[in-house]
């Protein structure tokens, strides 16, 4: 006969006897069933407690501790049951409240227990926690009286009691699902018994949601399921802990041995494979070591070569830390400065070697280097050890860490002593050239004045004498046949006089020296419009004659003359506006036309038209006289010429070309 069959034959008479006892006295039935469940709960605790050294599954130990308090609450429930007469002044609700309390403790314990699988269980902490929870629950029932009503005589279960039973069922079902997820942690037989125990507990709770009378049939069935649930836990823990403790103790060990055996076989295979790999790797390593030695030797030679290139480069190299202190410098820069490496590295800042004028440049640009990461082509004057000045051109790059924080700077330094000397020589040459240009223009003006004077004083007077004598001769020959020839000669002589006067005025108008720039401009505009009647000139003069320096009058006239001649020849304009005024401490000349305009680059090119030479002449005259000239022109939009000079003392000989 099988063991399971024997168990069934044993359980059936027990259940039948319990049922018959309920017919005789339900109170007797309830007491027997509850005491049986309480004894099982206490036994679960005692065996779990005393089998700690055998149990490798803290889930079962935690359940054993929990069932101690479940049994205690169950004992109070039994004593408080209707008809026992132990607690006076209470009705059937007291036993129901204690029942619900015990079921909540049981269900939450089964739900929380899987947390302790594979973890160390602090027994004292668990005992203390359950003690506090139990005292709190009993206090809400007996002392404070705030525990919700669960049963009303003549009415039955309250909604709280029914909802609580359903909540407990859900918690037990969740425990069942969680336990299934942890099934690898349990012996299959133990796991099966725990599953059945949870199912019996759920069935018990569902049965307890239907009774109206505490002595009713539904209450009876619920107690049968409760006894079955406790018995199955007994089978899972007590029988396994007492009758098969070593199987439980060494279950994981056997599993580990089997896994270890399989791992050993796999390991031997992997070791053999790895040995072959290592042998091959060793051979490859020997080859790589030989190659590495060759590479290291080449690298050493390359490093020496690079270091030699670094130290003897035609430019200086140095690195500064975040405070501007030298942390590296090449031999070239050291030779330039006259210091040894020991005197510089870690001792001097770059700013320590700068002249006063260069220090501000460094203070302005070092923060910019840290912020933007680079600076280019900064000129500094460094002070050598002997006190002499070393002009340099520096470019620097910032080095940052992975967090983009500034670490150091690396700089290239070029000695620009020769460039400075070349620049100075170029400036000197430009000054000499400027002086020669001014002298050339001065000589040109003087020559123009001289020729104009000779034409006026010499040729002009001779032509006037010839004209006067021709007129006298014509008067004396009034009736002779030759008088017609003399009469025809007089207009030719008159025209020659006018042409001589025009050449004289073009060379150097005497009115400029006699009456000044304002009268000269008015005369020039009248003469210009006689020749170019299609061009209307609008002038705006807001300056006094004595506010224009004498040398500047010639420059203003020549620029105006050149500008209007260019307009007449090239612009196709019909309107010109000329403004000469004093503004903001300057003398300003603006000539604006509405012509076709031109491209400045083409006009300035060497192979350009004569207009290009005229523009260059105007600019040179303005700059040589201490001023500036700006030309703006757009094709189809006309041209603007603006010349400015600082307002000086009109009695002085500057700005401008020194007069003859």
Structure summary, number of beta strands: 12
In CATH's first tier, which class of the largest domain applies?
Answer: Mainly Alpha
Number of helices: 20
Biggest sheet details: 5 strands, antiparallel
Q: What sort of overall outline do the alpha carbons produce when their principal axes are compared?
A: elongated
Named CATH architecture of the largest domain: Up-down Bundle
Integer average pLDDT:
79
Count of individual domains: 5
The CATH topology of the largest domain comes to Rhopdopsin 7-helix transmembrane proteins
Low-confidence stretches: 606-612, 650-660
Hey, roughly how much beta strand do the residues contain?
Answer: 5-15%
Helix content: 55-70%
Question: Explain this structure to me?
Answer:
This protein is an alpha+beta fold and 660 residues long. The chain folds into 5 domains: 3-245, Rhopdopsin 7-helix transmembrane proteins; 250-305, no CATH class; 312-415, PAS domain (Beta-Lactamase), CATH 3.30.450.20; 419-508; 516-660, Histidine kinase-like ATPase, C-terminal domain (Heat Shock Protein 90, 2-Layer Sandwich), CATH 3.30.565.10. The protein has 20 helices and 12 strands. The strands form 3 sheets. It has a 5-stranded antiparallel sheet. A 5-stranded mixed sheet has the order 8-9-10-12-11. Strands 1-2 form a two-stranded antiparallel ribbon. Helix 14 (417-476) runs antiparallel to helix 15 (483-507). The longest helix is centred in the middle third of the chain and has 61 residues, at 251-311. Residues 606-612 and 650-660 have low confidence and may be disordered.
């Amino acid at each position: 006969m099988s063991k399971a069959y024997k168990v069934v034959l044993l359980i059936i008479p027990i259940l039948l006897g319990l049922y018959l006892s309920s017919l005789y006295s339900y109170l007797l039935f309830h007491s027997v069933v509850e005491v049986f469940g309480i004894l099982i709960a206490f036994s679960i605790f005692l065996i779990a407690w005393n089998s700690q050294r055998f149990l490798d599954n803290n889930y079962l130990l935690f359940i054993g501790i929990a069932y101690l308090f479940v049994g205690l609450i169950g004992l109070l429930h039994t004593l408080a049951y209707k008809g026992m007469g132990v607690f006076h002044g209470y009705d059937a609700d007291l036993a129901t409240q204690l029942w619900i309390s015990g079921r909540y403790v049981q269900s939450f314990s089964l739900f929380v227990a899987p947390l302790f699988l594979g973890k160390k269980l602090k027994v004292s902490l668990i005992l203390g926690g359950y003690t506090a929870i139990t005292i709190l629950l009993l206090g809400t029932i007996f002392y404070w009286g705030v525990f919700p009503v669960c049963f009303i005589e003549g009415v039955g279960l309250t909604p709280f009691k029914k909802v609580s039973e359903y909540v407990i069922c859900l918690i037990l079902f969740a425990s069942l699902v969680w336990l299934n997820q942890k099934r690898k942690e349990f012996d299959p037989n133990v796991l099966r018994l725990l599953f059945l125990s949870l199912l019996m507990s759920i069935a018990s709770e569902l049965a307890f949601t239907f009774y109206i009378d505490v002595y009713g049939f539904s209450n009876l069935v619920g107690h049968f399921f409760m006894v079955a649930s406790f018995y199955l836990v007994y089978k899972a823990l007590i029988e396994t802990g007492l009758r098969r403790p070593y199987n439980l103790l060494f279950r994981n060990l056997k599993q580990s041995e089997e896994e270890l055996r399989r791992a050993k076989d796999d390991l031997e295979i992997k070791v053999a494979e790895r040995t072959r790999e290592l042998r091959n790797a060793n051979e490859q390593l020997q080859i790589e070591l030989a190659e590495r030695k060759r590479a290291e030797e080449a690298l050493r030679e390359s490093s020496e070569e690079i270091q030699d290139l670094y130290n003897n480069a035609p430019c200086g190299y140095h690195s500064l830390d975040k405070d501007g202190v030298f942390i590296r410098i090449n031999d070239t820069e050291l030779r330039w400065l006259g210091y040894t490496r020991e005197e510089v590295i870690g001792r001097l800042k770059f700013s320590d070697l700068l002249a006063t004028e260069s220090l501000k440049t460094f203070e302005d640009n070092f923060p910019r280097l840290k912020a933007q990461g680079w600076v280019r082509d900064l000129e500094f004057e460094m002070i050598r050890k002997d006190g002499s000045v070393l002009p340099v051109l520096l470019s620097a790059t910032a080095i940052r860490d992975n967090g983009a924080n500034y670490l150091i700077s690396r700089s290239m330094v070029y000695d620009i002593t020769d460039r400075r000397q070349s620049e100075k020589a170029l400036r000197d040459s430009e000054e000499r050239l400027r002086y020669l240009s001014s002298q050339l223009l001065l000589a040109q003006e003087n020559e123009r004045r001289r020729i104009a004077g000779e034409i006026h004083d010499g040729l002009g007077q001779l032509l006037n004498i010839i004209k006067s004598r021709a007129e006298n001769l014509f008067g004396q020959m009034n009736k002779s046949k030759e008088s017609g020839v003399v009469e025809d000669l007089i207009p030719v002589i008159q025209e020659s006089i006018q042409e001589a006067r025009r050449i004289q005025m073009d060379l150097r108008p005497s009115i400029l020296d006699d009456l000044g720039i304002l009268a000269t401009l008015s005369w020039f505009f009248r003469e210009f419009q006689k020749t170019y009647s299609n061009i209307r000139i609008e002038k705006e003069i807001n300056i006094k004659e004595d506010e224009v320096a004498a040398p500047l009058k010639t420059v203003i006239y020549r620029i105006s003359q050149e500008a209007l001649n260019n307009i007449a020849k090239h612009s196709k304009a019909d309107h010109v506006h000329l403004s000469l005024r004093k503004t903001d401490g300057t003398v300003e000349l603006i000539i604006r036309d509405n012509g076709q305009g031109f491209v400045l680059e083409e006009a300035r090119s060497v192979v350009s038209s004569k207009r290009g030479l005229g523009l260059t002449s105007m600019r040179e005259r303005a700059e040589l006289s201490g001023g500036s000239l700006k030309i703006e022109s757009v094709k189809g939009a006309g041209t603007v010429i603006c010349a400015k000079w600082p307002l000086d003392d009109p009695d002085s000989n500057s700005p401008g070309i020194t007069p003859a």
